Amino acid sequence: MSGKYFWKLALTAIIVAFCLSYLVPMSDQDFATHVTERSGVPEFAALVERAKTLSKESEESGRPLSVYMALKSIVNEERIDVSKYFADLELEANLRNVEKRNNILLPELLADSKANLKKGLDIQGGISVTFEVDPVALSEVPASQRSEKLSDAINIIERRVNTFGVSEPIVRPVGENRIEVQIAGVNTKDNPDIISTIQAPAKLEFREVHPSANPYTDPTPTGYVEMQEVDDNGEQEVVRRYYVKRLPALSGKYVADAFPRTNQVGGLEVILQFDDEGAKLFADVTERLGAITQRGEQTRSGEVGLLAIVLDGQLQSAPRVSERIAGGNAQITGDYTRREAENLANTLNNPLELPLEVVEMYEVGPSMAKDSIDSGVKASIIGVTAVSAFMIAYFMIGGVIALVSVLFNVIIVLGVLASFGATLTLPGIAGIVLTVGMAVDANILIFERIREELRAGKALKSAVEGGFDKVFSTIFDANVTTLLVSFVMYGLGTGPVKGFGLTLAIGVMTTMFCALIITRVLLELLFATGTLKSFKTLSVFDASNIDFMKFRKPAFITSWCVVAIGVVFLAMKWDSIWGIDFTGGDEVIMSFEQRLDEGQIRDALTAADIGEVNPLYQAQLGGGDEVLRIQTAFGKGEPAVDALVAAYPEAGYAMLGKNEIGPSVGAEIQKNAALSIALALGLILLYIAFRFEIGYGVGAVVATVHDILLTIGVFVMIPGHQFTAPMVAAILLIVGYSLNDTIVVFDRIREELTLRPTSKLREVINIAMNAVITRSLLTSITTLLASVSLMVFGKGVINDIAFTFTIGIITGTFSSIFIASPVFYFYHKGDRRSVESSHDIVPEYDWQVSTKVASSGTSKDD
């Protein structure tokens, strides 16, 4: 085997092995079984059995503990060092506190028992916690500012939750003073500190310590309060008492950033960086305290300047200050574990102004109902089967190679996501769908180019090499523009926008690798070994000679008229097109005697013309009967109850209560989604202007905006559709697909301009579009097979996303031919010299003295 094959195969094997290592196990393992097998020590197995017994007893007592928490309780109470049973796990040598060692090791073992690729709320459910703002604290906030303060708290909670590795949590207001938080893949049995971390106010204060008064001998000075610092080094507990000023010298509102850092002795501390005003105040305070210390040293009076660091009313440390500290940095030291230091830094970066109390805690089922999930799986299988059958039927052995490459692509995408500890949600799956579409498209591009080279009379080996060489720039430009979109979405986006951006960014890079490395090495190996002696495919769409530019004006005008009609419909139906995710609504809580499937509930309420409904089963944590929560539009809650009782009287439904819920897609997500798309389009314009020239960039941006508006317009014009949270991902899918299609056309126009130095711009555009029409049709067919399968066989939100994407596929293919290219043509007024003057695409031949020879035959087109 030659070296050029060996390194490609070796690289592929390493990457796939790396990704599979993160994908195994595919599902969570039983914690007790996992740790027992990993340890292999009988003494530890006995501890696990004790923990299982304790967990069972706690369930019976009504205060349930998981096996994990039971084991943690046993080893910490009896001061058993768990690390001695796991020789393969290393801890810091200077960490002598047994409880601290256990609190680092046991969470690592728990995480190791879980699948690396977690499922989101919409797929597997999780926990739901409702916080209530302290009424006393809320009463002190002016009525005009309460809504703003509650919104600030929601944004802060969402940022805190995301640091736990939870992707796309649901955080929304309930009523006037409550906040509901739904978190996927987390349970409070194994993560009891997650709730306290979410609701911690993180009120940070810097207070001066009395320079001379001794709490052990002197009475409390006026204006001071006694506080104590506790230090447990693992051998003994040390308590230090101080008289600390009641009023702070500096508060945490001046902290610009906080992050954990390992200090010189191997411990962990939290570094604080102040803003400009805070840096000045901190310098003034430390200058004053430093002067006290220096005076005490000079006079031997015993006075010393100490600065107490107080967090949520608890003294963290009281370091000695010897001089003025400039630069705006401080540190909080303590006996922290890595998790504790990270949590502290996170809460300091996101301080809550309003105290929160937990009023409800539930286990929740998937927000995407089981019938939707099952139908989505069925539809996906049908779609994949249809695409596979078409690729093999049309490209024969090439189709098999393409499917192998796409399979590797999906494995690598999922593996990389798992290595990041990402959560797989519906928007993430939408990103993977687009990745598969781009991967199939890249392979079709490659195969079509090879066929062109073969038709030109080249030998098989030369045709393969020429095909890959010529398609490289097309695949590169198409994927880089999509990558720019994904970077902007990940950097600026929140919630579903961010999740989609991450998945898409990974998918873009894996698509390029699989198409240009895996597909190529498989083809070359088959040819080099003589296994494949020809490259046969069907030729259904070949040899077209359509004058596309002849239809540019009527197609352009007709299309934008449809867009205008859609915009009018959008304005007319503005108040009714937004779903619960955007507007909020009613939530009714119901008890029941017979449990019905969510699909049955949705069908009954749809028949009763209730509109959008989200049925969700929840069970009180720690025991209690399961309840049914139904979310509807405002004013539809009680009619939904009546309709359900009438449809299923034997189920024994009874309403327990009703709440008004706020939107799960808040103003920040909506604003960031719009900003992300706008900025992405700007970057695309710049990139295409750099790689091609400005006229191409204008055409691509206009075509993308056209596709977004046309898709939204058609979606709104057809009755029965509303915008929901997953629709954000569907619109972003269209942006990616539209760009990919447009770049392919533009790349071919650029190439034909080089190859045909005397042809008019109109002729060149027609030739280019006829050259890529086969690829466009094949890509549209394969993508439509998948999306139509989801639309026909899927239910609920799956159907809505597939419907939207189906429209987007059609508009994307149409716009690349009748919008993007004509706009490029109009921009240059039909004159190829205008293109050449802004971008050097004119070829030079050996017999040419200058580019003027090549451009002398050009003329302004009509």
From TrEMBL:
<dbReference type="Pfam" id="PF21760">
    <property type="entry name" value="SecD_1st"/>
</dbReference>
<dbReference type="InterPro" id="IPR005665">
    <property type="entry name" value="SecF_bac"/>
</dbReference>
<dbReference type="GO" id="GO:0065002">
    <property type="term" value="P:intracellular protein transmembrane transport"/>
</dbReference>
<dbReference type="InterPro" id="IPR022813">
    <property type="entry name" value="SecD/SecF_arch_bac"/>
</dbReference>
<keyword id="KW-0472">Membrane</keyword>
<dbReference type="InterPro" id="IPR022645">
    <property type="entry name" value="SecD/SecF_bac"/>
</dbReference>
<feature type="domain" description="Protein export membrane protein SecD/SecF C-terminal">
    <location>
        <begin position="356"/>
        <end position="522"/>
    </location>
</feature>
<feature type="transmembrane region" description="Helical">
    <location>
        <begin position="724"/>
        <end position="746"/>
    </location>
</feature>
<feature type="transmembrane region" description="Helical">
    <location>
        <begin position="673"/>
        <end position="690"/>
    </location>
</feature>
<dbReference type="Pfam" id="PF02355">
    <property type="entry name" value="SecD_SecF_C"/>
</dbReference>
<protein>
    <recommendedName>
        <fullName>Multifunctional fusion protein</fullName>
    </recommendedName>
</protein>
<comment type="similarity">
    <text>Belongs to the SecD/SecF family. SecD subfamily.</text>
</comment>
<dbReference type="GO" id="GO:0043952">
    <property type="term" value="P:protein transport by the Sec complex"/>
</dbReference>
<keyword id="KW-1133">Transmembrane helix</keyword>
<dbReference type="InterPro" id="IPR005791">
    <property type="entry name" value="SecD"/>
</dbReference>
<keyword id="KW-0813">Transport</keyword>
<feature type="domain" description="SecDF P1 head subdomain">
    <location>
        <begin position="240"/>
        <end position="349"/>
    </location>
</feature>
<dbReference type="InterPro" id="IPR055344">
    <property type="entry name" value="SecD_SecF_C_bact"/>
</dbReference>
<keyword id="KW-0812">Transmembrane</keyword>
<dbReference type="InterPro" id="IPR048634">
    <property type="entry name" value="SecD_SecF_C"/>
</dbReference>
<feature type="transmembrane region" description="Helical">
    <location>
        <begin position="697"/>
        <end position="718"/>
    </location>
</feature>
<feature type="transmembrane region" description="Helical">
    <location>
        <begin position="376"/>
        <end position="395"/>
    </location>
</feature>
<feature type="transmembrane region" description="Helical">
    <location>
        <begin position="499"/>
        <end position="523"/>
    </location>
</feature>
<comment type="subunit">
    <text>Forms a complex with SecF. Part of the essential Sec protein translocation apparatus which comprises SecA, SecYEG and auxiliary proteins SecDF. Other proteins may also be involved.</text>
</comment>
<comment type="function">
    <text>Part of the Sec protein translocase complex. Interacts with the SecYEG preprotein conducting channel. SecDF uses the proton motive force (PMF) to complete protein translocation after the ATP-dependent function of SecA.</text>
</comment>
<feature type="transmembrane region" description="Helical">
    <location>
        <begin position="805"/>
        <end position="827"/>
    </location>
</feature>
<feature type="transmembrane region" description="Helical">
    <location>
        <begin position="400"/>
        <end position="422"/>
    </location>
</feature>
<dbReference type="GO" id="GO:0015450">
    <property type="term" value="F:protein-transporting ATPase activity"/>
</dbReference>
<dbReference type="Pfam" id="PF22599">
    <property type="entry name" value="SecDF_P1_head"/>
</dbReference>
<dbReference type="InterPro" id="IPR048631">
    <property type="entry name" value="SecD_1st"/>
</dbReference>
<keyword id="KW-0653">Protein transport</keyword>
<feature type="transmembrane region" description="Helical">
    <location>
        <begin position="555"/>
        <end position="572"/>
    </location>
</feature>
<keyword id="KW-1003">Cell membrane</keyword>
<dbReference type="InterPro" id="IPR054384">
    <property type="entry name" value="SecDF_P1_head"/>
</dbReference>
<dbReference type="GO" id="GO:0006605">
    <property type="term" value="P:protein targeting"/>
</dbReference>
<dbReference type="GO" id="GO:0005886">
    <property type="term" value="C:plasma membrane"/>
</dbReference>
<comment type="subunit">
    <text>Forms a complex with SecD. Part of the essential Sec protein translocation apparatus which comprises SecA, SecYEG and auxiliary proteins SecDF. Other proteins may also be involved.</text>
</comment>
<keyword id="KW-0811">Translocation</keyword>
<comment type="similarity">
    <text>Belongs to the SecD/SecF family. SecF subfamily.</text>
</comment>
<feature type="domain" description="Protein translocase subunit SecDF P1">
    <location>
        <begin position="151"/>
        <end position="210"/>
    </location>
</feature>
<feature type="transmembrane region" description="Helical">
    <location>
        <begin position="767"/>
        <end position="793"/>
    </location>
</feature>
<feature type="domain" description="Protein export membrane protein SecD/SecF C-terminal">
    <location>
        <begin position="658"/>
        <end position="829"/>
    </location>
</feature>
